[in-house]
Design brief:
- It is a single chain.
- The chain is of the alpha/beta class and 247 residues long.
- It has a single domain, classed as NAD(P)-binding Rossmann-like Domain (Rossmann fold, 3-Layer(aba) Sandwich), CATH 3.40.50.720.
- 45% of the residues lie in helices and 15% in strands.
- α1 crosses α8, α3 runs parallel beside α4 and α4 runs parallel beside α5.
C-alpha cells in the first residue's frame, strides 16, 4: 500500500534493530529516508544497502540536530533512538538517569519541536514515536526507562492536540520484546543477553515492528492510527507482588 502523499522521512536510531528495519521498509515504499545515529560504519552499510541518506549525529547534540533537521522538512519523523540502562531509581547512577532522559525523551521532544511546525504549514506530516510496553505497564523495576517511555506516550497524545486542525498524524508504536541489541547493551554482554532474553522465546522480529509502522503510514490521510501495541503472543504484562512479612 502507498504511504499517502509522503515523500521524505527522518528515522533516528537507524544503525541497528528496529530503526534499521523501519528504514528498509520506508525505502521499499519509495520514501527518501534520512537515517540518523552515531555509528558511521553501520549507517554507511545501511545506506549502501538501501539507498537511504546517512547522518552521523548524536540525538542529544541539540546544535547538530537543529542544523540537520531544519532544511530537511521531513514528511515523516520516527523517534526511534532509545537506550536502556539496568537498575531502578535506587541503584541507577547519574549517567544512567541523564542518558535515558536525554535520548529517549529530550531529543524526541526537540525533534518534534523542529519538525511539527513545517508539517502543520504544509498540512502534511506524520510523527511516529517508538515507545514501549514499559511506558504503559509496570514491571521489572527500571524506573527511568519506564518514566521516559510513559512521558513519550503523553507527548504522542499532546502532539495530536498541538496539530489540531492540520493533516498531521501522530502514531505511538508500543512494542513488547523485540530481538535487537538493546539487552546486550543493557547488561554489557551479548552472549548472556541472547541466552537470558531471546533463546527459547518467540520474540518480535524487527520487521514485525516496522510492519506496524508501515500500516499506520499506509492508511488514508483522514485516518489517524493513534497507538499500536504490538507484543509477542507468549509475552503478557501484569502480575502483582505481595511480600509476606511477619516482623
Ligand atoms: N528491543 C525491544 O525489546 C524494545 C521493546 C520496546 C521498545 N523498544 C524501543 O525501540 C527503539 C529501538 O530499540 P532497539 O531495540 O532497536 O535497540 P538497539 O538495537 O539498541 O538500537 C538502538 C538505536 O538507537 C541509536 N541510538 C542510541 N543512542 C543514540 C544517540 N545518542 N544518538 C543517536 N542514536 C542513538 C543506536 O545507534 P548508535 O549507537 O549508532 O547511535 C541504535 O541505532 C528504542 O526506543 C527502544 O526503547 C525496544
Amino acid at each position: 500500500m502507498a504511504f499517502s502523499d509522503y515523500r521524505t522521512a527522518l528515522v533516528t536510531g537507524a544503525s541497528a534493530g528496529i530503526g534499521a528495519a523501519i528504514v528498509e521498509n520506508f525505502v521499499a515504499h519509495g520514501l527518501t529516508v534520512h537515517a540518523l545515529s552515531r555509528n558511521r560504519a553501520r549507517l554507511e552499510a545501511l545506506a549502501a544497502r538501501t539507498g537511504c541518506i546517512a547522518h552521523v549525529v548524536d540525538v542529544t547534540d541539540l546544535a547538530a540536530i537543529e542544523a540537520l533537521v531544519k532544511p530537511l522538512e521531513p514528511d515523516v519523523l520516527v523517534n526511534n533512538a532509545g537506550v536502556s540502562r539496568a537498575g531502578d531509581i535506587a541503584t541507577m547512577d547519574a549517567f544512567g538517569v541523564d542518558e535515558q532522559v536525554d535520548v529517549n525523551l529530550r531529543a524526541a521532544l526537540h525533534l518534534i519541536r523542529l519538525t511539527l511546525p513545517g508539517m502543520m504549514a504544509r498540512d502534511r506530516g506524520h510523527i511516529v514515536n517508538i515507545t514501549s510496553i514499559a511506558g504503559l505497564y509496570h514491571f521489572g523495576g527500571n524506573t527511568v526507562y519506564h518514566a521516559t517511555k510513559a512521558a513519550m506516550h503523553m507527548v504522542s497524545r499532546q502532539t495530536r492536540v498541538a496539530a489540531y486542525g492540520r493533516r498531521v498524524r501522530v502514531t505511538e508504536i508500543v512494542p513488547g520484546r523485540a530481538e535487537t541489541e538493546i539487552f546486550a547493551k543493557v547488561i554489557g554482554d551479548a552472549e548472556r543477553a541472547q541466552k537470558q532474553f531471546y533463546d527459547g522465546f518467540e520474540s518480535l522480529k524487527v520487521e514485525d515492528v516496522a510492519d506496524a509502522v508501515a500500516y499506520a503510514l499506509s492508511t488514508p490521510r483522514h485516518v489517524n492510527i493513534g497507538q499500536i501495541e504490538i507484543m509477542p503472543t507468549l509475552q503478557v504484562p501484569g502480575g502483582l507482588n505481595f511480600e509476606k512479612r511477619t516482623d
